Amino acid sequence: MLRKFVRDTRGNFAMLLAIAMVPVLGAVALAIDYTEMSRHRQATLNALDAANMATAWRLLSGESETEVRRFAQDFFEANLGPVKAKNVVLSVELPDQSAGGNTIKMSADLHYDPLFYGAFLALLGKEDTINIKLFAENEVRLKNTLEVALVLDNSGSMDEKGSGSGKKRLDLLKEAAKQLVDTLAAQGTLMKQVDKPVQFAVVPFAASVNVGTSNGSASWMDTEGRSSIHHENFDWGTMSSSLKVEKVNGVYKKTGTGWGTARNSIASRFSLFDDLRRKYCTKKDNKGNCTTWAEAPMTSWAGCVEMRPYPYNVDNTVPTTGNPDTLFVPMFAPDETDTTANGRQAYNNWWSDLLTSGTAANRQKYMPKYFTANEITGFADGKGPNLSCTVTPITPLADVTKTSGANQIKNAIDAMVSNGATNVPEGIAWGWRVVSGSEPFTQGRPDREKGNDKVVIVLTDGANTYYTASSLAAPNKQAAADEANNKSIYSNYGYASRERIFDGTSVSKTHNNSNYTKAMNQHMRQVCTNAKQAGLIVMTVSLDLSTSKSDEKEQINLLEECSSESRVRRDQKLFWNTTGAGLAETFRQIADELSNLRFVG
């Protein structure tokens, strides 16, 4: 009977087979389409990942939002593989470029047209439209490059021991700052194929900032003496006819016939340093009297500059010869009078007046004295034409992910010494200029480049200070005299009698240390505001400052006001009030903050 059934070819078997094949065909169609659908979805995900990464690099290169979106679409479509571009809708969410550390978000809506399953349903008489939609998304965090200026107080008080520690404040600072460099450098090496991912600069400050003697001929220095402040302490009219100096086309030149080969050359602060000569004996007679004299250079410019005239002292205006007041003027402290007042000496008398009569003011501005050699071998500590220039030079941005760059920055930190007064606004201004992409220092990325954070870390242990002569001791240990009515010792605002220290402030122009501090505080507030508005992240640290002292409390409040808002800690400022014992932990927290801006999964 079985053989008979096998030989039976009548239609009932075909009908049964057809009925049996319906679920089989449906399963096969579904399996094929499911496999193909999964392949399309994976291809879309792969294209999305590739497009997001490529778009991130495009965005960081500085292209416009329109160009970035066009690039994202083209790149995505080029990498879809088996997926038809018309079946996918790409959405791109770009970050707010006013701040770093954000993400690019991409999503794709994929419409899939089945290959077989739709036809299978049609065989069954079902005409419903097959509409399968898939959704995919991803997010790429922009790992920003980082440029940090360490603006560090090197004033005399940094030589004191840190509170709660047996070490000097400056030594504690060196250890903490170098650890910060090491931490961020190690993280920077994770950013593969990125040029200079983490750069640091060092800006030591005290009463002034040292830009480095190698920059004496830089285009941003006032080499021709054109700035309105360049000659404010000099009276070139006192020169003799043979050594005449006069203004020619806006520049003072040596026009007298006695200048020899130097005739018609520029007379400036730089030339004054060059013209200072010391004389020394090369031959004596049998009685010990010198019979032959020789001359040699006396000293040279140490690298410090005055603050630019307001408002350029509180901003980052690019220096140009077309606006001479934007150029930087070398510091040159005038020789003060030889005369005494009631036994009190001038604070910075370092050269012979040459005049035998006249007022202290006349003696101070008498120019021929600088062209007459003196028999001296050097200057008292912190005195002479480089008065108030006590700090080591700025070290520009260097890539600390490279051994050479890290060593350069850490060596600069180790080289710092404590001496002098405190001028925080000048330190902040130079910190800004160092990380800026424009002159005077150009090692930084362009200021508008996306995906780069420019950070200024400011640490100080004291209030801003500028001193009247009477508040300091002269070489004879008595309070210094001010017979020339300078109203202050010379520092990087020049003499306070010129009142540049009050420009742009509401402080009464009564000349005393308290008002000088108030004026500097207002300048500090302005430079902080300007820097933050320019997109800088400002982090501030007060070290061993006391709220029980009015001037130090004011500095604490000012530092907190100066700081930026944290991007990773809600409603918190980037300000730390710390002690010597807590300084290492403070810098560890700073490292964490900077890491969170960049190295997030």
TrEMBL record:
Highest taxon listed in the record's lineage: Bacteria
SUPFAM superfamilies per the UniProt record, alphabetical: vWA-like
Segments forming domain VWFA: 147-210
Coiled-coil parts of chain: none
Transmembrane segments: none
Gene3D superfamilies: von Willebrand factor, type A domain
InterPro entries according to UniProt: Tad_N, VWF_A, vWFA_dom_sf
Signal peptide: none
Protein name, per record: VWFA domain-containing protein
